[in-house]
Amino acid sequence: MSSRERILGRVRRALVDVGQDDTPYEQAVSRDYLHVHGDRGVEQTVELLAENLADYRAIVHRCTTADLAATLAGMLAARGSRTVVVPPGLDPEWLSAAEAELVLDRAESTPYELDRVDSVVTACAVAVAETGTIVLDGSPDQGRRRITLVPDHHICVVRVPEQVVASVPQSLERLDPTRPLTWISGPSATSDIELDRVEGVHGPRTLEVVLVTA
What we know:
Layout: H1 3-14, H2 25-28, H3 42-55, E1 59-64, H4 68-79, E2 83-86, E3 101-104, H5 111-115, E4 119-122, E5 126-128, E6 133-136, E7 153-159, E8 164-165, H6 168-174, E9 182-184, E10 189-191, E11 197-199, E12 206-213
Parallel strand pairs: 1-12, 2-3, 2-4, 4-7, 5-8, 7-12
Antiparallel strand pairs: 5-6, 6-9, 10-11
């Protein structure tokens, strides 16, 4: 008998007097909680998103679709970025004015190669106003998860208002749970026991979010 069989046997014996729960999954947990807090309009929801993003130490920019290419080029130039990782499905117009070298997201790219890249520019799946959270789902305009975790500088473009929701429950209604979801609330950071904050530990040290209106 293997160790696995012994462990499973002990589990079965421990559960022998536990009744079978036939409650369907959809009914097992109460879903009558509030889906959104307060009554905000579109503009107020976007303002809340910007406020909470800034509270998490993300840098927030605003522009129109017509100005997006110039805005991104200016942000990369101000950062001094010479190389930028680009997801395969990113709109090529977004970086048409950038002077940095564009590095395509490739399956064979190693973490060491990505670590030498200055910045990454992606779109997002949805942005949550109440928590100041950006969600990526690995779509072609966002690329693989690793390209947003290894480079030290991440620029994320959010289309306003269509990609902005008020709450986490509303975001879950839009997201596919089978996709590789990455939830980002500000730049990567951690604190030690003395609450000394260190940024850039598990991902980008700097997160810049561009809220783009038509």
